[in-house]
Design a protein that fits this description.
The complex is a heterodimer. Chain A is mainly α. Chain A is 55% helix and 0% strand. A two-stranded antiparallel sheet of chain B has the order 1-2. The chains are: A mainly alpha, B mainly alpha.
Chain lengths: 148, 190
């Protein structure tokens, strides 16, 4: 184990002073402009890439260059990766119940009662509630009765 | 001079002070990650939320992103100055960062005033509940960062406890990263 002095030493943060922070900031601003302009074309794929894809890139640039994660001790990366893993597990475990409004033995009445969301799944339509509900029921499996 | 234990004691190869800040950030990932994850699930399950999101002001969000990115630049420049032992310069850069936080909050207050007076309150529907909760918790983090930074800047001006400049910078960059994700989720996806 190294001493704290080592951790704060120039060797520990090798390359730290070589970063041109103003240049990094300028790159971030260019990415910001792209993330605002891209969605104006109202093309779904382009919006996903320019808004959310670039958000990931911007976060990476900030973490790497401003937080110096690229020269930080591996233990920090492990801690952060574990937390991101927990976040993904939370999403994976709960998203089916939130994004789908009915299943084999259950239904979300509050969501189904809303005309726009009834029966919607991921990327669900704005169509008629009853039609959407019935149309999206799995083959051979009746949609839950309204009175349940 | 007696040095603080967070600087002199090491755990896992890095000073305990820095390790503690990383732990704080790790816990914040769970807080904001859970909130934003929940938002994404609900957003995917409720297409009509796009109509509600259409009322958020993209330009105000973009300007605030610019402000926070710039404040992150001044925070890292403060760290650079502190590493060179130039406390007064580090304090000045921290002052710019605090100013950035202040501008961010002023813009946010104008935004919220407009939205609330037009009926888009936290109880209007679940989209606005998420909007105010996420942006509100983020705003509280900005305020906390500004207060902590002010105390650290006062010490740094006297060349005291300069290692803390890096620590508060780490926290501030994380707050910036959270906003980087909040911006497209709340302002762009319409």
């Amino acid at each position: 184990m190294s001493s704290p002095a080592d951790a704060h030493s120039p060797e520990a943060h090798e390359g730290h002073h070589e970063v041109n922070y103003v240049r990094v900031w300028a790159i971030l601003l260019v990415l910001l402009v792209v993330s605002v302009v891209g969605p104006m074309f109202e093309i779904r794929v382009l919006t996903l890439i320019t808004a959310f894809g670039i958000a990931v890139v911007k976060a990476y640039i900030v973490a790497k260059n401003f937080m110096h994660l690229n020269i930080e001790r591996p233990i920090v990366l492990y801690i952060l990766a574990a937390m991101l893993g927990l976040m993904l597990q939370f999403f994976w475990g709960t998203s089916p119940d939130v994004m789908h409004h009915y299943g084999k033995n259950w239904e979300n009445r509050a969501a189904l009662d809303q005309p726009h969301t009834a029966g919607s799944t991921v990327g669900g339509s704005h169509g008629d509630a009853a039609a959407a509900h019935g149309a999206e029921a799995p083959a051979g499996e009746a949609a839950p009765a309204a009175g349940h | 001079m007696v040095r603080p234990i967070a600087t002199t004691r090491s755990a896992a190869g890095l000073p305990t002070g820095r390790l503690a800040v990383w732990w704080v950030i790790a816990s914040e990932i769970v807080i904001f990650g859970g909130l934003l994850g929940s938002y994404v699930m609900h957003r995917l399950g409720h297409p009509e939320w796009a109509d509600y999101a259409a009322h958020t002001n993209t330009w105000a969000g973009a300007f605030n992103t610019f402000v926070l990115l710039t404040s992150s630049l001044s925070a890292v420049l403060a760290h650079q100055a502190a590493e060179k032992g130039d406390g007064p310069k580090a304090a000045r850069y921290l002052g710019f960062t605090i100013l950035g936080g202040g501008v961010f909050l002023v813009v946010k207050s104008f935004e919220w005033t407009y939205e609330i007076t037009h009926g888009f309150t936290i109880t209007a529907n679940n989209f606005w509940a998420f909007y105010y909760t996420a942006a509100g918790i983020h705003g509280v983090h900005v305020i906390a960062g500004m207060i902590i930074m002010a105390f650290i800047a006062m010490d740094a001006r006297k060349n005291k406890e300069l290692q803390r400049v890096e620590l508060v910078g780490l926290y501030w960059h994380f707050v910036d990263i959270v906003w980087i994700f909040l911006f497209p989720l709340l302002y762009i996806a319409k």
